[in-house]
Amino acid sequence: MSTVTVRLNKEKSKLFNDYAEIHDMPLSTILKEALKEKLEDEYDMELLKEKVKF
Question: Which InterPro entries does the UniProt record give (predicted)?
Answer without folding.
Answer: DUF6290 (IPR046257)
